[in-house]
Amino acid sequence: MKIKADHWIIHAFALLHAGVALLCAALDMRDSLLLTALTMTLAGIICFRAKLTVEITVTSLILVNIVGFVLGNAGAMAKLDAIPAFWRPALTTFAVTEIIGWALYAFAHRLTPYGAAAYERDQSWYRNAGWLVAAVALIFAIRVYTDLNYSGNVILENSGVMILLIFTTLVSLVFMMNFALQMQRETSAQRTRRHQAEFRYMNLKNQVNPHFLFNSLNVLDSIVQEGTREEASAYIHKMAAIYRYLMKLEGKQLVPLADELAFARNYRDLLLIRFSEGLITEDHIGENIPKGYIVPCTLQILLENIVKHNAIGPDNPLVAEISTDGKVVRVSNNIIPKQTAPSSSGIGLQYVRNQYRDIAGEEILIDSTETRFSVTVPILEEPE
Q1: Are residues 302 and 181 in the same domain?
Q2: Do the Cβ atoms of 347 and 301 come closer than 8 Å?
Q3: What 3 state SS string does 20-46 have?
Q4: Disulfide check for 73: which of 58, 152, 276, 324 has CB 3.0–4.6 Å away?
Q5: How far is CA 132 from CA 2, 52, 97, 128, in A?
Q6: Same domain (yes/no): 233, 278
Q7: In terms of residue numbers, what domain contains 312?
Q8: Looking at the domain assignment, is residue 59 inside a domain?
Q9: How far is it, in rounded angstroms, from Cα 144 to Cα 5?
Q10: Domain count of the fold of the chain
Q11: pLDDT one-digit tens code per residue, 194-249
Q12: At what angle do helices 159-208 and 347-360 cross, to 10 degrees?
């Protein structure tokens, strides 16, 4: 709905510009100040609705007035003999307003993902409103001065003035480009910080996951009751190794593949004890572990997803495989649908995807068919 509203605003201001031009022509009076006010109002509304900062809005006001002045006077100087003289100012003003409105709309909404972040961060419309007032006053002062001393044709034919207009336009464009790049960097940094916060949350969740702890303690109780002392001791040591690894991850973006694989194997062993019938794991990596790094908890999350989203039973075993070609690690499984599909937020896979994008600019590959599901993650180089 907001996009359609912006469209109607542009059309309405174009018609309003044309109406003012016609009225001023009928009354034989200058229309420049009124049209300048309307143009700045249109630009301000578009920038405000796009949540751009005051700095970029002020620059936009300067640019649209320069462009509007040049295009408007160029249209007035054009030979449009087919159009009655009375209607020419209105039609050229309408066309120029549409061009300016749509160009600014496209530019503003191109910046919206970055400008909105700055707008929400420091509420610059309220804290820096003085700059906006000063810009409007300056533009009006220049417009009044030129109306009193020059005609549009004289200004366009004055090489010194044209050089000044071109210089001002270039400076404004450079400022806008610099602003866009700066906001893009800030937004990227904010996204990275958010994903890092999600990473810390995931680690904390893994450390205190009540379901994992409850199931592990149930299995341990069963081993104590029915198994041997050695089996119980081995199980406790694997649990301790898992939690010790999770606690060591604080602040780490990447970990050696060998460490992550050892952690995943401990987690896998606990799953094999818990699902003693119906779960098979195939580790094709063995002891020849490639050198490289991986996002923490990646393999554990993928193994957890496998047992969470598939039925496990002795009649139709669930097979989870881990393999590598030296450049990627692949975790795959056959699909055995549960009778009641578990609710899933997808946060695990999304976490892995976001971490690889933010840390290394790499993508993970998810391949899903009716019978198999696999996730391939890249092995990364040593962090600097």
Answers
A1: no
A2: no
A3: HHHHHHHHCCCCHHHHHHHHHHHHHHH
A4: 152
A5: 24, 12, 21, 7
A6: yes
A7: 209-378
A8: yes
A9: 33
A10: 2
A11: 656 555 555 555 544 566 676 777 778 787 887 788 888 888 888 888 888 888 87
A12: 130
Position 54 in a domain = yes
Q: Are residues 219 and 320 in the same domain?
A: yes
CATH number at residue 275: 3.30.565
Final residue belonging to a domain, choices 153, 188, 223: 188
Q: Is residue 199 part of a domain?
A: no
- SS3 category, 124: helix
Domain-embedded: residue 43: yes
What span, in angstroms and rounded, lies between the C-alpha atoms of 202 and 297? 9
Q: Which of 124, 155, 188 is the last residue of a domain?
A: 188
pTM value is: 0.52
Residue 153's nearest CA partner among 36, 31, 28, 69 is 69
Q: Of 353, 354, 357, nearest to 365 (Cα)?
A: 353
Q: Are residues 181 and 259 in the same domain?
A: no
What's residue 149's pLDDT?
62
**pLDDT tens digits, one per residue of 257-285:** 999 999 999 999 888 888 888 899 999 99
Q: Are residues 160 and 45 in the same domain?
A: yes
378 pLDDT exceeds 90? yes
How far apart are alpha carbons 178 and 182 in whole angstroms? 6
Interatomic CA distance for residues 75 and 97, integer angstroms: 12
Query: Do 106 and 222 belong to one domain?
Result: no
Strand-pair category, 365-368 with 372-378? antiparallel
92 with 72: CB under 8 angstroms? yes
**Ranges of H-type helices in the chain:** 2-27, 32-49, 54-77, 88-122, 124-127, 129-149, 152-157, 159-208, 210-226, 229-247, 257-274, 298-309, 347-360
Q: How far apart are CA 104 and CA 118, in angstroms?
A: 19
Phi, psi of 132 (to 5 degrees): -65, -45
